[in-house]
Design brief:
alpha+beta, 5-stranded mixed beta sheet
């Protein structure tokens, strides 16, 4: 059972043993039984909340307390790739 985590921008450099070839996001599969929320995923990759600008779970703008489960797709964007979502959309939390 896995969760697909897509890590964008300079956050990709924080992930060990990954080769960055172009501007594509890193696609990393993690075991779903190791995580419950977005914050758990950030902790796995040693990413601080302050380093992120927005996070999506299955295409929905989400907060750090959003729960994740098997089969979910999570996109994590750094501050330097900030979008206007934070001003116009409400974050989904549980």
């Amino acid at each position: 059972m896995t969760i697909l985590v897509k890590i964008f921008g300079e956050l990709r450099t924080k992930i060990e043993n990954q080769i960055i070839k172009d501007n594509s996001p890193l696609n990393i599969y993690i075991e779903a039984d190791k995580v419950n929320t977005i914050l758990d995923i950030l902790n796995i990759f040693s990413i601080e909340k302050e380093e992120t600008s927005h996070i999506f779970v299955n295409g929905v703008y989400s907060g750090f307390d959003k729960s994740v489960k098997d089969g979910d797709r999570v996109g994590i964007f750094p501050r330097r790739m900030c979008l206007l979502y934070k001003w116009y959309f409400t974050r989904a939390n549980d």
